[in-house]
Write a structure and sequence with these properties.
Elements (H helix, E strand, L loop, with lengths): L12 E4 L7 H13 L8 E4 L9 E2 L2 E2 H9 L6 E2 L18 E5 L4 E5 L4
Parallel strand pairs: 1-2, 2-5
Antiparallel strand pairs: 3-4, 6-7
Length: 116
């Protein structure tokens, strides 16, 4: 999507989730491309959903947490993981384009108005 003209994400919370149909290198490259293109400039936080299939997966000594930490921590924004949205059994949706509050202290992502 980087070359297709992403919307301005200034002030946004980025939602990230993936199913293990790809390896860690693909996730690393996708995040790196977004970062280098400046697409994540002004981001206010990152919410991490489900990543089924990555639970015990590693590649060259790295696991999913290592890749996400390496790419996201330098952004200097709050990152909250373990949220129940995205792929997997009984997938939960998150309304896009709404106001939200990411609270890493309480471990919550509150969307307003709530999705129905």
């Amino acid at each position: 999507m980087v070359g297709a003209g992403l919307p301005d994400l200034s002030g946004a919370i980025l939602l990230v989730e993936a199913e293990r149909t790809v390896g860690l290198g693909v996730i690393d490259r996708q995040l790196t491309q977004l970062i280098r293109a400046g697409a994540l400039d002004g981001l206010q936080g990152v919410a991490l959903g489900r990543f089924p299939g990555f639970e015990d997966y590693s590649d060259r000594g790295w696991n999913l947490v290592d890749v996400l930490r390496d790419r996201l921590v330098p952004l200097g924004v709050p990152v909250l993981g373990g949220l129940e949205f995205g792929h997997g059994t009984d997938p939960h949706a998150v309304a896009l384009g709404t106001m939200a509050d990411l609270d890493t202290g309480s471990g919550t992502l509150t969307v307003s108005p709530p999705a129905r």
